[in-house]
Design a protein that fits this description.
It is built from 17 helices and nine strands. It is of the alpha+beta class. It folds into three domains: 83 residues, Integrase, DNA-binding domain (Double Stranded RNA Binding Domain), CATH 3.30.160; 79 residues, DNA polymerase, domain 1; 207 residues, Orthogonal Bundle (hpI Integrase, Chain A).
C-alpha cells in the first residue's frame, strides 16, 4: 500500500484480465480499480452492518484524485452516523448518472423513452463515460454531433442534438450545471438533408436480399429458421411492410386471428395498428422457434427483443450481390418505400397503401382523417396477399407477366 498521486495513477498498468485494486495509504477503503479494458475507477470499499460493500466514486481522469478523496470523506461521515452512503451521500454527477436520472424523471412517461436511451447510450455515453457532466463544454458536444453528421447519419445527429439539448437544459434547472452547452446552437445538417428515394425496385435487388437472409444469423438453436434470428425477421419485414421496431419487438400475444395487432404504444404515430398476415407470412411465423416461455418472437435471450440489427445489415451488404456486385447503399427502412411503389404498380389504391404502411398523413391527413374512419382492414389483407404472391414471383425468378390479376382490383 502506498499514498496515491495523480502521476502514480497515470503510470498504473492495466491487467491483461480481471481487475486490480490499488489502495491509498491513509484513506481506509479508498482505492483505484484498474480493469483489463483500460478503465481506472476510484472506489470505496466499506462495511455497513457487517455487509461488505463497494461504491464507485468516478472514473479517472474525469474525476480527479482530490475530488474522489472528497467523495470518500463524505462517505465516511455518513458511515459514522450509522447510515449507508449509497442511500445518503451524493455521488459525483457523471454524465451517465445524470442521464439515468433524466431518463427516469423527465422521459419516463414518454413513448420514445427507450429509443432516447438507446441513442444516447450508443452515440454519447462511450465518449463521456465517467466524466463529470459539468466538465462537458460546448466544443465537446458539437464535436460529438459533427462526427455523427460527417458519418452521413444526419437524422441521427439531429435527434441526438435534440435529446442532449433537453438533457442539458434539464440539468441546468436541477442545478447540476450552470449553462446548457447547446444553447443557441444551430440544428445540425440543415443544409445537408437529402430526401431519401432509395428503393429496391429492381427484381434482382430484392431477390438478392431475400436469398441472402437465409445465410445470415446464428446457428445452434433447435428448430431455428434459416438465418435465425435476423433472416426470418427481415423476410417478415419484406412481406408485411411493417417498421423495423414493430417486427423486431414483436410478441407472440400480438399475433391474433392471422394478423399482427399492435397497441398505440408500439407504433410510431401512437395509433393502434393491424397488420394482416398473408399465407406466406403465417407460414414463416409458424416455422419460428419458441425461446423458452418468452413472449418475444425474435429473441436469443428470452428476456428482450433481439439486438444487433446493424450487424445483420452489414452481413446482408456482403452477401446480397447482383451480377457479383454489392447493391447501392440502402437501408432496411427502404423496404417500405419499395413495397409502396410495387403496390402502386399492382394497381392497389393510394389509401390502401397508406393503410398498409400505417400512415396517418397523406390522404388521411387533416379533416379527412377526422371524418374518414374506415381502417381498410379487408383491403389491407388483399393488398398484402397480392404482395406476397409478387414476392414469390420475384424471388423465384419468374417473369413479370405472371402478376396475379386479382391484385389489380384491390
Amino acid at each position: 500500500m502506498r499514498s496515491l498521486t495523480t502521476a502514480a495513477i497515470e503510470r498504473m498498468k492495466v491487467p491483461e484480465r480481471g481487475q486490480i485494486d490499488h489502495f491509498d495509504k491513509g484513506y481506509p477503503g479508498f482505492a483505484v480499480r484498474c480493469s483489463y479494458g483500460g478503465a481506472k475507477t476510484f472506489i470505496h470499499v466499506y462495511r455497513h452492518h457487517g455487509k461488505l460493500k463497494r461504491r464507485s466514486l468516478g472514473r479517472f481522469p474525469s474525476v480527479t484524485l482530490a475530488e474522489a478523496r472528497e467523495a470518500w470523506r463524505r462517505n465516511r461521515n455518513v458511515l459514522e452516523k450509522g447510515e449507508d452512503p449509497t442511500r445518503v451521500a451524493p455521488m459525483p454527477r457523471t454524465f451517465e448518472a445524470v442521464t439515468a436520472e433524466w431518463l427516469k424523471r423527465d422521459q419516463g412517461g414518454n413513448r420514445t423513452a427507450a429509443e432516447v436511451a438507446r441513442l444516447i447510450a450508443r452515440e454519447a455515453a462511450p465518449a463521456w463515460q465517467g466524466r463529470l457532466i459539468a466538465t462537458i463544454k460546448r466544443p465537446d458536444v458539437l464535436s460529438l454531433i459533427d462526427g455523427v453528421v460527417d458519418s452521413g447519419r444526419i437524422p441521427t445527429a439531429q435527434h441526438l442534438h435534440a435529446y442532449l439539448h433537453r438533457l442539458f437544459r434539464w440539468s441546468v434547472g436541477r442545478g447540476y450545471i450552470e449553462q446548457n452547452p447547446l444553447a443557441d446552437a444551430d440544428k445540425p445538417g440543415k443544409d445537408k438533408i437529402v430526401r431519401r428515394d432509395r428503393k429496391l425496385e429492381d427484381d434482382a435487388e430484392l431477390a438478392a436480399v431475400w436469398h441472402a437472409t437465409f445465410k445470415i444469423g446464428e446457428a445452434g438453436i433447435e428448430g431455428a429458421a434459416a438465418g435465425w434470428p435476423f433472416g426470418p425477421l427481415i423476410r417478415l419485414l419484406i412481406l408485411t411492410a411493417a417498421r423495423c421496431s414493430e417486427i423486431g419487438a414483436l410478441r407472440w400475444p400480438e399475433i391474433v386471428d392471422n394478423a399482427i395487432s399492435l397497441s398505440g404504444d408500439r407504433t410510431k404515430n401512437a395509433e393502434p395498428r393491424l397488420i394482416p398476415l398473408s399465407p406466406a407470412s403465417l407460414q414463416l411465423i409458424e416455422a419460428l422457434p419458441r425461446i423458452g416461455d418468452s413472449q418475444f418472437v425474435f429473441t436469443t435471450t428470452g428476456e428482450r427483443p433481439v439486438s444487433g440489427r446493424s450487424g445483420a445489415k452489414r452481413q446482408l451488404d456482403r452477401l446480397a450481390l447482383v451480377d457479383g456486385k454489392p447493391l447501392k447503399p440502402w437501408r432496411l427502412h427502404d423496404f417500405r418505400r419499395t413495397i409502396a411503389t410495387r403496390m402502386q404498380k399492382l394497381g392497389i389504391g393510394l389509401q390502401v397503401i397508406e393503410a398498409v404502411l400505417g400512415h396517418i398523413s397523406g390522404s388521411r391527413a387533416g379533416i379527412v382523417g377526422v371524418y374518414q374512419q374506415h381502417r381498410f382492414d379487408p383491403e389491407k389483407r388483399a393488398a398484402l396477399d397480392a404482395w406476397a404472391v409478387e414476392v414469390e414471383r420475384i424471388v423465384s425468378g419468374k417473369s413479370a407477366n405472371v402478376i396475379p390479376l386479382r391484385a389489380a382490383h384491390v
